[in-house]
Design brief:
By secondary structure, the chain is of the alpha+beta class. The protein folds into 2 domains: 84 residues, Elongation Factor Tu (Ef-tu), domain 3 (Beta Barrel); 144 residues, 2-Layer Sandwich (Threonyl-tRNA Synthetase, Chain A, domain 2). The chain contains 3 helices and 15 strands. It has a 6-stranded antiparallel beta barrel. Strands 9-10-15-14 form a 4-stranded antiparallel sheet, covered by helices on one side. Helix 1 crosses helix 2.
Length: 237
């Protein structure tokens, strides 16, 4: 079982670990700060360093229940001590983007009562679909102003955990149209943009909304009668 360090500290860029197993083109570690991907947030990339040898991590994900770090080229042996280094520029951009999506989701839920029907993100840009009947340029501009007001409000972003029983008592903890939380999950990790948005979430986020920076709504589309899309981009930091 790999200890998922990113659940405790999204800002951890470097860590020490031991190779606990190998595959044809990857390794398992006893602990990792590399995000494994999920919930719309892509996996991390970076390097593992053993002595003077550097191994490039090109993908991280679960295979057969194990967290596997795919390596470009030969892999280190089981028992090797390594230093993991996350590609911080990419990770931090994804953290800002993920938090921006939660701000968008929180505003749309609070002000318009619409559930999420889909979403996706890349570093610095993302889209989210909502159960809305109407969409217009004026609506997109209104949403842009409201989400940037939440950025400026400098709201703290707190990580928490709930038992499954506690989570089931909060009707809007799962904001998606279809509840994607597996029934076997008995402890639910939450992200709380304090005063705005509390959701079940396993990804990485910034600690305060002001770190997100300016959010631009760069597109709006109709994807069906009650399915509308908003596209966002973040200003460079």
């Amino acid at each position: 079982m790999t200890e998922l360090l990113f659940h405790e500290d999204s800002y951890l860029r470097e860590f020490e670990a031991t190779v606990s197993g190998v595959t044809e083109n990857g390794v398992m570690l006893d602990r990792t700060a590399f995000y494994i991907g999920g919930g719309g947030q892509p996996f991390d990339t970076g390097v593992l360093v053993a002595s003077t040898v550097e191994y490039r991590v090109t993908r991280v994900g679960r295979t057969g229940g194990n967290v596997v770090h795919q390596i470009d080229g030969p892999v280190p042996m089981t028992g090797t001590r390594v230093t993991g280094k996350v590609d911080w520029q990419r990770r931090y951009s994804l953290m800002r983007t993920h938090t921006a999506l939660h701000i968008l989701c929180g505003v749309i839920w609070r002000d318009y009562g619409a559930l999420v029907t889909g979403g996706d993100m890349r570093p610095g840009e993302a889209r989210m679909d909502f159960e809305l009947e109407q969409m217009s340029a004026e609506f997109a501009q209104e949403v842009e102003a409201r989400i940037n007001a939440e950025v400026a409000a400098a709201r703290d972003v707190a990580v928490g955990n709930l038992t499954r029983e506690q989570a089931d008592q909060i009707p809007d903890l799962i904001r998606t149209k279809i509840n994607l939380l597996p029934p076997n999950i008995q402890e639910v990790r939450t992200i709380d943009i304090q005063g705005l948005d509390l959701q079940a979430d396993g990804g990485t986020h910034v600690a305060n909304t002001r770190e997100v920076g300016t959010i631009k709504v760069v597109g709006h589309e109709s994807k069906g009668r009650i399915n509308k899309r908003l596209r966002i981009e973040l200003a460079e930091k």
